[in-house]
TrEMBL record:
Specifically methylates the guanine in position 1207 of 16S rRNA in the 30S particle. It is an enzyme of class 2 (transferase). Residues 168-334 form the Methyltransferase small domain. GO terms for molecular function: 16S rRNA (guanine(1207)-N(2))-methyltransferase activity. The keyword Secreted does not apply. InterPro entries: Mtase_sm_N, rRNA_ssu_MeTfrase_C, RsmC/RlmG, SAM-dependent_MTases_sf, Small_mtfrase_dom. Keywords: Cytoplasm, Methyltransferase, rRNA processing, S-adenosyl-L-methionine, Transferase. This is Ribosomal RNA small subunit methyltransferase C. Its EC number is 2.1.1.172. The lineage of its organism: Bacteria, Pseudomonadati, Pseudomonadota, Gammaproteobacteria, Pseudomonadales.
Amino acid sequence: MDNTSQIIERSAELFAGKRVLLVNPQADGLTASLEADWQVWTWDYAAWLGLKGRLDEACLSFSHLCPEVGQLDAAILVMPKAIERAEYALAQIAPLLASGQPLYLVGEKKGGVSRADKLLGQFGSQPEKLDSARHCQLWRVQLDAPAAPFALADWQQSFTVELADQQIELLSLPGVFSHGRLDEGSELLLEEPAPLPVGKVLDFGCGSGVLSIALARRNPECRFELVDTDALALYCAAQSLARNGVEAEVYPSDGLSEVHGRYHAVISNPPFHTGIRQDTGIAERFFNQVTRHLLPGGELRIVANGFLRYPPQIESHIGPCRVLRENSRFKVYSAVAPG
């Protein structure tokens, strides 16, 4: 069981038998070992897959928005990686609680929970640390008054990306990769003028959709599919595609779990962090699995930090790896499947 779940379980008397909203949990045994009327909201598709067989479907939500759960006794937020994602989640959770009810925050000490006093202090005057163990902390605040209603528009950020050949209007939400800006890696990949192979293109870890929008305009004969594990990213990608008049399919996937069929090209700025830890295993599993989704002659085109030793992995699974372009921090790699 994850450390954050263990520290919640240590305070089981606070939650047992109560109607509790649990937000951003790990897909472990907490909801089975601690008997409560659990209502779960996650934006992580991998967690949703792991929990869907353990909870009633009506009690589990995968969305960019918190479900409107009534008659709560308490709510728990497991600290996300990005502070701004925590603020976004708390702004939706707090209005579901009545004055005097408890709002809990749990997380790893090095993962942002040290800011719990400030994060919870906007909802009550006396945030308190209840427990500290296994490198985690559990905090609580009791609401002084009903929280202000949540408005999604207050958290959406619209911004414009200027490329040499086009202008792109993007929508972003807190915690979505490169929130509110074009990251340096994606910018480098989009500087590459070589066309993609004509046909189906998969955008793995699509974020707000900037790669697909730009490349769909440059490659009008291609059909794009965008996947991500983050519900907020998927919402932003769908909205950004619509704003730019680009048609594409957008759907959740844990890695390549929901991807079927084979593609003429796969593009990605692949993630290499899980929570607060660097995890190149995501990319390693991706290279291992993506080969079965590339047609003969299909191209894998990715951008990555230059210090990551991706070329040997790419070549062992797909084929010869070329560097299309690079700068002091990033490299754009291309490999073509044999055949």
